[in-house]
Specification:
Structural class: mainly beta
Distance between the termini: 53 Å
């Protein structure tokens, strides 16, 4: 019974296509767009997963190292890349008395484990990119 129902739908569709006012014989078959994989996420200081956050605090205990104003140019299940502003306490003469230094950086998130990025690389263009572990 089910096979007959499918055959009827196919036959009806073929007939309807034949009744089209466009009689072009070189029609192109439609293609199916694959469903994209779920993008990986990054966890915030409260262990909440986020996708494309505008800011990431790297040192949750004291907030002395973070990236803000992030604009993501790509975000996939294997990596994410963007630009933002890094804020880092220079800890001079000590972290309690230090000052925050800010600079533009390129941000790259990599090494996803169970859909959560575990590494961040910051590149300020000085030829010395730094890789930091991320919250799991």
């Amino acid at each position: 019974m089910r096979v007959l129902g499918i055959a009827a739908v196919v036959a009806t569709t073929a007939l309807m296509a034949g009744c089209s006012s466009n009689s072009s014989s070189n029609s192109t078959p439609s293609t199916v767009t694959p469903t994209p994989a779920n993008p990986a996420q990054v966890k915030d200081c409260h262990s909440q997963p986020q996708t494309r956050p505008s800011a990431i605090i790297i040192t949750c205990a004291d907030g002395n190292h973070s990236v803000s104003d992030i604009t993501w140019s790509s975000w996939t299940d294997s990596s994410a890349r963007g630009t933002g502003t890094e804020h880092r306490n220079n800890c001079q003469p000590s972290c309690a008395e230090g000052h925050t230094v800010s600079m533009p950086v390129t941000v790259e998130l990599t090494t996803p484990v169970n859909g959560i990025f575990t590494q961040m690389t910051l590149d300020s263009g000085n030829g010395k990119p730094e890789t930091e572990p991320l919250h799991r």
